[in-house]
Amino acid sequence: MGTPITKAVIPAAGLGTRFLPATKAMPKEMLPVVDKPAIQYVVEEAVAAGLSDVLMVTGRNKNALENHFDRMTELEAMLERKGDQTRLAKVRESNELADIHYVRQGDPRGLGHAVLRARMHVGNEPFAVLLGDDIIDARDPLLTRMLEEQVKRGASIVALLEVDPSQIHMYGAAAVEATDDPDVVRITGLVEKPSREDAPSNLAIIGRYVLRPEVFDILEHTAPGKGNEIQLTDALQEMAVNPESTGGVYGLIFRGRRYDTGDRLDYIKAIVQLAVDREDLGADLKPWLHEFVATLD
């Protein structure tokens, strides 16, 4: 058994253009999902899976990310004076979550380039990559299972989701072979955002990866692909077809609850779905939703 995986990389340099003008001055990762920014859910997921060393790959105008995960002594002191221990605990939670580091991506040259910027921090060991647009429900521990599969198979592991074929052009798509586990497939090929006709399957890559460090050497020489960006999917394709030197790539098919905060409509759905399940909000929100929906008939 290898060294336990402890490092997570969270690319967070995107401009969030789909949420303009809200993201003109605020990072899209800081948009609130109920009462926490989206990025905090992602960090919490990493920590829950045992990944206490987190590197965020950021860009310009992302200082709010660092501020959120840092102490705010004036606010803490004010809450202490008021005796508001509940809110004080919530404020302190974000800066006590993990050992968080930051590196700038510089030019936004794609997800593959963002991952490559983590090379110095990660070193020569497997690591996880979590994209901030995907929130995985804490009751469905996807990342923990991916880490277990990485140790078991010695390969890179990506999360896959069955999507409607009409939506596959929005994702990387995987060509797969079955294994002895119905939730795990061996990936034989990957295509970034194919047309419905060219897609090898309706299994889409979603924003969770556990990668072997060989990916860095491959990314170093990966030419720009779709959108003239360095695509992580292209590097994974090379790893998939060269399992002898890279360990290959396997996919874990996720059948749990996932919330997409990268799209405006899905972002609104995510807020409602998570709020309904909250003990402090659900009891009042559910009947209001029934009443509101009834007015639409």
Secondary structure: elements and pairs:
Elements lengths: L6 E5 L20 E2 L2 E2 H11 L4 E6 L4 H6 L4 H10 L2 H12 L2 E6 L6 H6 L2 H4 L4 E4 L3 E3 L5 H12 L2 E7 L9 E7 L5 E9 L10 E9 L2 H7 L11 H9 L2 H4 L2 E5 L4 E3 L3 H13 L5 H13 L3
Parallel strand pairs: 1-4, 1-6, 4-5, 8-12
Antiparallel strand pairs: 2-3, 6-11, 7-13, 8-11, 9-10, 10-12
Spatial strand arrangement across the major sheet: 5-4-1-6-11-8-12-10-9
Query: What is the CATH third-level topology name?
Result: Spore Coat Polysaccharide Biosynthesis Protein SpsA, Chain A
CATH architecture: Alpha-Beta Complex
Pairing-aware structural class of the strands and helices?
alpha/beta
**Given the structure, what is the number of helices?**
12
The tally of beta strands, per DSSP, is 13
Query: What share of the residues lie within helices?
Result: 25-40%
Which CATH class is shown? Alpha Beta
> What number of structural domains do the residues give?
1
Low-confidence stretches: none
Return the string of H and E elements: EEEHEHHHEHHEEHEEEEHHHEEHH
Distance between the termini: 59 Å
- Outline the biggest β-sheet: 9 strands, mixed
Mean pLDDT: 92
Please tell me what the overall shape is: globular
By CATH, the superfamily comes out as Spore Coat Polysaccharide Biosynthesis Protein SpsA, Chain A
In percent, how much strand structure appears in the residues? 15-25%
Radius of gyration based on Cα positions: 20 Å
